[in-house]
Amino acid sequence: xxxxRYQNELIVLIALLLMxxxxxxxxxxxxxxxxxxxxxxxxxxxxxxIIALKNQWGDPELSNKIKKIEKSVDKKNIKSFTIKNKKxxxxxxGLSSKEMNKIITTLENTAVQIINLKVTNIEGEYSMEFxxxx
Amino acid sequence: xxxxxxxxxxxxxxxxxxxxxxxxxxxxxxLVNIMLSPQxxxxxxEELPVKYLYQAKRxxxxxxxxxxxxxxxxxxxxxxRANGWVFIAYNLKSIEEFLLTKGITPSxxxxxxxxxxxxxDFLKPILLESGELLTTIQDTVVLLPKVLVDSGGYYGxxxxxxxxxxxxxxxLNSGSLLGQKxxxxxxxxxxxxxxxxxIEGLRYKSISTTMSQEIETLLSQYPSLRSQxxxxxxxxxxxxxxxxxRQKRDILKELxxxxxxxxxxxxxTLDSKNFVAIFSSKTPKNILRISSLAKKKNxxxxxxxxxxLIKVEGSL
Lengths: 134, 316
What we know:
The complex is a heterodimer. Chain A is α+β, with helices and mostly antiparallel strands. Chain A has two domains: 2-57; 62-133. Chain A has four helices and four strands, in the order αααββαββ. A four-stranded antiparallel β-sheet of chain A has the order 1-2-4-3, with helices on one face. Chain B folds into three domains: 3-175, no CATH class; 186-231; 242-315, 2-Layer Sandwich (Gyrase A, domain 2). In chain B, strand 14 (300-303) and strand 15 form a beta hairpin. The two termini of chain B are 97 Å apart. The interface between A and B is large, with 55 and 65 residues.
């Protein structure tokens, strides 16, 4: 019964093993926290970017926002202004430079994809044609 | 004088050896129990107003103090007897040394008891090899010369199959490097550290769980982003749109910056691949300035038929 002879050492050894186990458990958990922190930080960054892009370029309110262009222009200057399947085709004429600038600024500040834009100056009056989608 | 109290133990079916100074070498290789004759311990019976064993054990060193030799390390054993307590002191080292001379290694000793515990079994004297008698006189087990006891030639027999009711664990850890006290202190410290570390580990675990839940909460608001594949596709799609559209808007801003005083936009054409802008000015100096500014932006600049027109073009 050798173990009985060294039972004191055995008890101390078991307690030591218990402490070492607890140490490695704590160490692994601390390591996991670091990993999770990095993972969460990356995921949150990635998700945040995707959500921001989606909210910006996939905003369901874009149809209403683009209609502001139509409202800001005198009806006599609108040759056509058609919104169909999230696509806008517009043709405007007889615009002052101020009106033309305002329309371009609205287009710039609205998250629509400008397919094409054509501005022509005819004797001091501007005509505009543009196609957008969102 | 070190004072140490051993633990009790349960019954055992191992052979029992009566240990006395003149005993013969036993022939056991397996585990044995031993019963010590009075030659190996000092006992005293006292009637004390003590109710519990642990209280009596605390008193053992002081009760036996006068009977013990100075400088000898004693251990104590206490048991209840009739109306009082029996206090026993023994020197483990000398017992161990004696056992070794008889070929009994401490590791082969399972349990140890004292003859005093089994006083009733020695009412009929037992004749030892030395000619001495082991017997009980006035509730005390003693060793006496045969001539002092008149037993009429009838002697008892030591029962080797006797079941020990009670006793002490033989200190089989006497060869160990650590004492009981030291091992207790060390174990206690290690266990305390283990508890602290485990609690800390659990705290870390809870932190990482909480952090993971943050992502889960966010994903629950956007279920379409739960799959990494879907996330990659959505990111790819919108990042491409974002890049191209920002470029288009930057170009429009840069073209607007070319409209300095006395300069007019003649036309602008912009699509997904390139752009063309024509500016006009009555001042040749302005035309030169537009040309210089456009070139700084790495746009292609060309004069048109009239000296008043300048064409700026580029690709996305």
